[in-house]
Write a structure and sequence with these properties.
Blueprint (H helix, E strand, L loop, with lengths): L2 E5 L3 E2 L5 E8 L9 E7 L6 E7 L3 E4 L7 E6 L4 E6 L8 E7 L5 E2 L3 E5 L2
């Protein structure tokens, strides 16, 4: 049973940098998965993908965030990271990590609030 758990600060100030971690446990080796992704969902809005790693080290980002978001992973530790710089209140959302395909595994999400 694959399980994902997001962690990080829940409250950050505008202009600061945020680092989120997604720890993966269970299942097969994480290197067997082709897609590692971060999504976010702001209140009243649809969930959107913001960053993705594809088959190793290829990365892609949503156009709205690509100059501020960085996705990375540590296969040895089964951990996925998301770093967000120059935070604004518009970054306030629940952030989710996702693993797969193959499979479709989600973390429970972590609320991030950007406020002074």
């Amino acid at each position: 049973q694959v399980q994902l758990q997001e962690s990080g600060p829940g409250l950050v100030k505008p202009s600061q940098t945020l680092s989120l971690t997604c720890t993966v446990s269970g299942g097969s080796a994480t290197t067997n998965y082709y897609y590692w992704s971060w999504f976010r969902q702001a209140a009243g809005k649809q969930r959107e993908i913001v960053a993705q790693i594809i088959t190793g080290s290829n990365t892609r980002y949503a156009d709205s965030v690509k100059d501020r978001f960085t996705i990375a992973k540590d296969d040895a530790k089964n951990v996925l990271f998301l770093h967000v710089s120059r935070l604004t209140p518009e970054d306030t959302a629940v952030y989710y990590c996702k693993l797969g395909p193959p499979g479709n595994y989600w973390g429970q999400g972590i609320q991030v609030t950007v406020s002074s």
